[in-house]
């Protein structure tokens, strides 16, 4: 049984190096803020494990996500925004493979348009948006979900970018949060899916122009999500040719030649 | 309101031209058998519309799926098996786009490993398999689903390839059929999903070595699925910057400069 | 195949007879307003059928829902508020039985606390509420759902009672609408479920103190919901003792005596 | 945070006292066998807690399920078969209330027809059945689900009663097991739901005429299910009148008199 959870917080890490306003909020990058918060936020649910948190960024070799590093990663947290297209498809393939084997994936805010999130969802992942420093109130729709542990009925962020419905996603397995926005929209802000053997959580807040990842409720949600998404198994994909478990009646009209050919054909 | 449904039955069309046993069952290709059956099978549910059925195959230009042809297609039926990798990614992108806009997609049998099905699901779509001419009994788990119209409690196929669980798919919105196999396995054989504005149905039977698509129950299921998957809307993807519907309180600490930059950044 | 849909609009019909303000809005009862609107609102989706709309109220014999009348009802629309407890349990049993056989059920507004809705859900169906004449904006989260046909991205009601999350319901099969309220809450306002062979739709708006059922968007939603919930089958419940379809190996250690006793025992 | 899980195994306890064959398999009642197995089976997942297991039976005062005892119960395991109708409705109400507050509920085999299961589901919970000492093979459809921990791809029971589809239940949140039966049927044998704040698991095997609850795989499943269903919260139902969180525009045409009356009306 696992005794620790290995986490990588991945960040595009461009805004913080190019925009003074963003740099003032996240001087070492928002990945560093999130990683430090995770390290400092113990789990609240039974079975919560201690975390080993590292980071990775776009401009590192292989975006910091080598085969070996991903092989040892339990939960990957993803933030990207303006250069999703620069993420190498081979790395996206690699992350998808690991999620399907059991690795957790937490996608934050503008990561809704990342290659990996769109890959896992199969949809466009579009939405409405507006950057107007407006109030967001996140309502807890599933208070017994582990990701809602330690929260009240709602929490507020005084200034956030607005994301509004329709959010083009497959229906979530659970919708933990629904947001109310000052400007009049609503949004499914905390959404859970299972894909393969892995768990995926999308969490809406986190525009780079606001100190959202310094907020203690936001930190609590991400910490809970990491615990929730930690792998329960690690199962490598196969598509086996299976021997029968019961006798199959002999069918004289068929020959085994066809079978052998067909086995070879299967991808 | 639509008055007809335009259908394309797509086939890899290799086995039938390379294997005499398969050619004997489907001399003009299984796409032709399916298309003729669809044309001859009226819908049973209220709202059923007449069909205009065409076909397309891998070796045609653009696999027979040009932009223009797909733009006018309501439901695409897909059969592929041994050369999934030869399907052009640009055509896969195009089909995905149309499904997300509202086009229906029916994936048959070995199409579980097609690029388009894996793209829509986000998973490996693996399973167990065995070719042993064995009996399959498909149980109707959701008798009130439109795809089950006209069927009894179950129907049987005397000889089929076995597909067994675990089938690596996202949990279906509805599981219409579960199969019992002579050799001891079970399988979720009729699965429905919604992705974007389109409906997707996976239907298990249809190994090329058996006359499955000549079976009247199988034909009934595919005809029902086409009616069920016909588009209800046609909505092209956008990710709009939305004006507020309610007044937003003035926040003196923020400037609009940041907003303009960020809009430009969004993918 | 059915050619018409038989609808009963059921109303508690107390507020309208006891409160002048409500009577001014719905002089013949809100059931009459809804029934007239349904009769005048043709369906927009393929397969839409003409409606035969009647009404029933609490103070009629058997609440207007005799065995015979329900047996011929395709879709039942339900509005109740202050005397849910006066609904006879035998009538609730009868309605549940019909829904499970295939009859549609549309539950409106304060019907969230009706015996029949709680029976079908298995939960408390609690929520937050406030009557403050506030603006409600209903966002269309699933624009391709038949219940959203003919609507824009959202519609507004200038004055409504607020219902807020957490709404204690089983996760809906589809969530068509999410409401934004002026006072700061959100709510899953249009929820679909399947139970047995019947379809259930809960639609939030409709406090008796406001002219909500005179609103054309609200009328459109209820009309769409009636078409969506119309039965596709009528299957009476059984729990049959089934003969085997395959040979079962003889087990010398067991006798049939036990079997016979057990069959008689089963409820 | 909880450190132990309090479990009650409830049994109708009639067959074992009336039928020598059943008594030979379960001399102290099948509740005792299950309780002893639970006590002896440590959890496999992170967060597994030690169990305190007691039992209760139909013929005890209040069926052994007093208000106080249920208030301290974390997970209730339920087995009943031939006298479901003798369970007091007041006790059913009490159990439902506790599940909605967060208590776990594990329903075994013929408990599919128990009052409490039908109450939680809202459906008939009917199925096909046959008692013919036949082989059942349970396939693990969701190998990463906590309830499947420690199992292989499938497990078998040499002699069981057959339950076949269609099983009249709301679509499960997760379907962990699907059974293959020797006589030709299939069944969704391990089904999960959330209702209110509680988790419910239905597990098919366990006919009283066979030693099913002595089987180590069956014991493993029940032990896993108890850990999975242990409460994460304990939230008592309310339906609060909520004060607005945002200013609401003054509407001169409305008065507060109506509001006060309506508050009193709400159930």
Automatic annotation (TrEMBL), chains A, B, C, D:
Pfam families for this protein: ThuA
InterPro entries: Class_I_gatase-like, ThuA-like, Trehalose_catabolism_ThuA_prok
ThuA-like domain: residues covered: 7-229
Name under which the protein is recorded: Trehalose utilization protein
Lineage: Bacteria, Pseudomonadati, Pseudomonadota, Betaproteobacteria, Burkholderiales
């Amino acid at each position: 049984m696992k005794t620790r959870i290995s986490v990588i917080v991945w960040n595009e890490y461009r805004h913080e190096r190019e925009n003074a306003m963003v740099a003032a909020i996240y001087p070492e990058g928002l990945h560093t803020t999130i990683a430090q918060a995770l390290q400092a936020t113990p789990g609240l649910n039974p079975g919560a494990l201690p975390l080993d948190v590292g980071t990775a960024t776009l401009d590192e070799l292989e975006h910091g996500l080598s085969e070996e590093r991903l092989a040892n990663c339990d939960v990957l947290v993803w933030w990207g925004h303006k250069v999703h297209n620069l993420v190498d498809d081979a790395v996206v393939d690699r992350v998808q493979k690991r999620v399907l084997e059991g690795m957790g994936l937490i996608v934050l805010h503008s990561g809704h348009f990342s290659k990996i999130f769109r890959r896992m969802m199969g949809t466009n992942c579009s939405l409405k948006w507006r950057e107007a420093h407006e109030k967001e109130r996140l309502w807890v729709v599933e208070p017994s979900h582990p990701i809602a542990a330690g929260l009240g009925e709602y929490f507020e962020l005084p200034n956030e970018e607005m994301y509004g419905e329709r959010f083009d996603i497959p229906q979530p397995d659970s919708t933990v949060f629904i947001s109310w926005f000052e400007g009049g929209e609503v949004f499914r802000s905390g959404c859970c899916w299972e894909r393969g053997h892995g768990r995926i959580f999308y969490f809406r807040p986190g525009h780079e122009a606001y100190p959202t990842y310094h907020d203690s409720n936001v930190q609590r949600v991400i910490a809970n999500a990491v615990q929730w998404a930690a792998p329960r198994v690690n199962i490598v994909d196969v598509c086996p040719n299976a021997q029968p478990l019961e006798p199959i009646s002999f069918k004289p009209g068929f020959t085994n030649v066809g079978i052998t050919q067909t086995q070879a054909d299967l991808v």
